[in-house]
Amino acid sequence: LFYLIKETFGLDKVAKERMFVVLILTFFSFLFWAFFEQAGSSISVFTDRNVDRVQVERTLTAGDVGTTIEFRVPLDTTEEDLKKLPPLTQAQLGWPAPVALRPVIADAILRDVNDENKAKAEKMKEVQEIADSAREAELFTISGLTALRSMAAKQDALESDKKISWSVTAAMVGMEIGESETPASIFQAANPGFILIFGLIFTWLWAFMAARGKEPSTPFKFALGLLQLGLGFVALWMGANSADDRGMVGVSWLLLGYLLHTTGELCLSPVGLSMVTKLSPARLVSTVMGAWFLATAMSNLLASIIAQFTGIESSEGENTILPAPTETVNVYGDVYNKIAIASIVSAVICFLLVPKLKVWMHPEVDTE
Asked: Is the dihedral of CA 46, 230, 254, 266 positive or negative?
């Protein structure tokens, strides 16, 4: 970076101002990807823990109180007997865990560690503390669901590992029984899916506007991309704020967020490298391209740092199960709110710089 800045000030007026544009837009690209790459980290975890992905079959009523429901633990199974049972899903998260189920969850946590040959003294002490917290937890959490599914998925799983009994009490009236649950990983396909749909539309739109001399400039597209990215995080924040009593967020908010992130990507991403090669002096173009890719790599480092702020800490200590969704949803919402503000403020600054950047690009002068 210092080398490029030094070289920039040694260039003639046109080349120098074009390099200013490249460096400024590289910085905005760095911010964009740092925020955008939450999709593969914190947003994916948010989807797993707090986005309602269950297709509901029925809801428990007062008439179900006193009965016992037998759930199958694995979501997918080839065993006919298990297929007849409703799956244990996210729909049970945040509801009171039956007293008889709590030691089953604790046992699953301990057995999972032993099966993975991690039973060192220090590790087992930590896991024992987690198992103890599971045994005392009043609410059913993602930690319990994950532990039960992990045991049921093993090749040597016992029949008792593949189903659990759930005693219905008055406090569980209103709990939904799921028909199926969409895995969180499926939503990673939202971005490429939207790209396939809207990529052609954006290509046509830019060509249509260019034919009429109204295509937005590269700096304007960068600002537009940052704005849409920020609005995508606004959607996630609004989803977190509108979560139900269990802390679960409607999937429509997640898809809206992904949609806005994708349209922002389609504004910024395709013009980045072309801008670098078009505006950089011939003798510096390879170095500038390297700096562009380095900035993208560094943005992933910043993305990982940002994702750490969504880490969930239980009030009961470090070695404990994850809390109920009601305690995690606002953690994600607060972080996404801050990202939205940062992204939108960056977009506003970029919009304000557009006139100056357009002048510095010197479109009237042929590229060397």
From this structure: negative
